[in-house]
Write a structure and sequence with these properties.
The structure holds two protein chains of two kinds.
Chain A lengths: L2 E5 L2 E5 L4 E8 L6 E6 L5 E7 L5 E3 L5 E5 L4 E6 L8 E9 L2 E4 L3 E6 L1
Parallel strand pairs in A: 2-11
Antiparallel strand pairs in A: 1-3, 3-8, 4-5, 4-9, 6-7, 7-8, 9-10, 9-11
Chain B lengths: L4 E3 L2 E4 L5 E6 L6 E7 L5 E8 L2 E5 L7 E4 L6 E5 L8 E8 L9 E2 L3 E5 L1
Parallel strand pairs in B: 2-11
Antiparallel strand pairs in B: 1-3, 3-8, 4-5, 4-9, 5-6, 7-8, 9-10, 9-11
The chains are: A mainly beta, B mainly beta.
Amino acid sequence: AQSVTQLGSHVSVSEGALVLLRCNYSSSVPPYLFWYVQYPNQGLQLLLKYTTGATLVKGINGFEAEFKKSETSFHLTKPSAHMSDAAEYFCAARGDDKIIFGKGTRLHILP
Amino acid sequence: EPEVTQTPSHQVTQMGQEVILRCVPISNHLYFYWYRQILGQKVEFLVSFYNNEISEKSEIFDDQFSVERPDGSNFTLKIRSTKLEDSAMYFCASSSQGARTGELFFGEGSRLTVL
């Protein structure tokens, strides 16, 4: 069975600092992995996805994630945080004909 | 840019009442999904729908829930007799290729409050 684990339900970083949100997955099939962002009172927006090919995936708003099979990880990073990045971030993995979400990490940006 | 739209954005209902949440998927998509998010918790899969039938459903999707694509454009989620614990944000999603290979596009959600 597929599962997604996000370490840290809340992460705080200073504006301009590195953002690192951690995600580990388990999957019995080659994984497709996703990061979604949810801004306050809004829906889920796809940040980036890994399916096949290059393991470093670039997404919108300066975010990127690296698929590491040996570590079963798909951590999300951004070199320099901006106040507008404050949101909930969900790591997700495909599971048969659905996407399975992690519990989410709320990112707080400190001025 | 095409998008998934959901109505209503917020519905308040009394316990025991029937609720219908509506979704208009992206027009050329063939795979449809409902997810829910109880406040402060994870986004949970409810049901997937393809070729006019349910492909998969979770244990949450019990007999109180049903889905329908009545007219080829709308995709609805019906809760027959709402319970307090049904209060949540419900997200509709659609996909052209399904989750096995493609991306799911989510609507902005319908917030259901059961009193």
